[in-house]
Amino acid sequence: MASGAGSPCGACKFLRRKCLPECVFAPHFGAEEGPVPFAAIHRVFGASNVSKLLRRVSPAERCAAVVAIGYEAQARIRDPVYGCVAHVFALQQEIASLEAQVMQGRAQLGLAMADLRPPENPSRKEASVLPRSCSGEHSASPQSSLDCTHLNDTRDPLFMEEQRPRKRAHHGDDLGELHDLALRMMMD
């Protein structure tokens, strides 16, 4: 007997047969585990099919094959139509959702970093943007200087667009494309 001490392996115990020394199931379904782990595999695939499969697999890879077969058998019992494919699909959807969140976070981080960069040469930019009454000449009325305060506001999208150098998205650079899209959305 392959399991030692005269007791059959879990698979042979489930099948109610004598466990031979060359039993392909003995290394993977011990007597102490009992027949329960093998029951799902036998129910879904059949002992004969699993035996043939394990004999074709190299001995070094049999343990991984038994784990995969057992996982698939449990998944087939839970979901007879899709098996583990339903779980794989759910994980792929979760990965896609998380990747979208990461890209959105990177785009937001890129915008935040761009807002923290100092302007290239603010005195030259302001002089070219401001109208005559706000370009440093003091006007007589205090109201005219108040009318121009919005032009110096760094949160104004037009002012931000002129100060921030525009990066070109490289082919395949999703972060650059998202950054450009976010800038266009802010301008609207």
UniProtKB/TrEMBL annotation:
List the GO terms this entry assigns under cellular component, sorted alphabetically. Answer: nucleus
Domain named LOB is located at 7-109
**Which residue ranges have biased composition labelled Polar residues?**
136-147
Example GO biological process term? Answer: hormone-mediated signaling pathway
Under the heading Pfam families, the entry gives: LOB (PF03195)
Annotated region Disordered: the residues are: 116-152
Q: Which family does it belong to?
A: Belongs to the LOB domain-containing protein family.
- List the protein's name: LOB domain-containing protein
Organism of origin is Spirodela intermedia
